[in-house]
Design a protein that fits this description.
104 residues; mainly beta; Thrombin, subunit H; six-stranded antiparallel β-barrel
C-alpha cells in the first residue's frame, strides 16, 4: 500500500447509545478514526426491492490497518454516509479493504 495512493480522507464512525437526563436512550454516531484512504472501485447499480426499483451506490475503500473495525461501523466521505458491508484484512495487518453501500 503506497502512501501516495491514500489521497482521500474518510471518517469511520461507530454507533453508541447513551441515556439522556430524562431517561430516554439516545443513539449517536461517534468518530472512531479519521484516516487517509484510497478509493478502489465506485459504482451505482439498480436492483429490485419489495417496493420497486432502488439505486444503490457501492464503494470500496482501502485504509491502513485499524483494529476493531466491524460491519456495525460506517464510513463518512465527502458528505455521504456509507454502511460497511464487508471488512477484509489485506496481508498480515497491512491494511483493510472496506466495502460499503450508500445509505441514502
Amino acid at each position: 500500500m503506497r502512501a501516495g495512493k491514500l489521497d482521500r480522507t474518510v471518517s469511520i464512525e461507530r454507533k453508541t447509545e447513551t441515556v439522556s437526563p430524562t431517561g430516554a436512550v439516545v443513539a449517536a454516531w461517534l468518530n472512531v478514526a479519521t484516516v487517509r484512504a484510497e478509493i478502489v472501485t465506485q459504482s451505482a447499480s439498480e436492483f429490485l426491492t419489495g417496493f420497486g426499483e432502488a439505486e444503490s451506490g457501492t464503494i470500496v475503500f482501502r485504509v491502513r490497518y485499524l483494529a476493531g473495525i466491524t460491519t456495525a461501523d460506517r464510513v463518512s466521505y465527502a458528505g455521504q454516509v456509507y454502511d460497511l458491508k464487508e471488512v477484509t484484512e489485506i496481508g498480515r495487518r497491512r491494511g483493510l479493504e472496506l466495502r460499503a453501500v450508500d445509505t441514502a
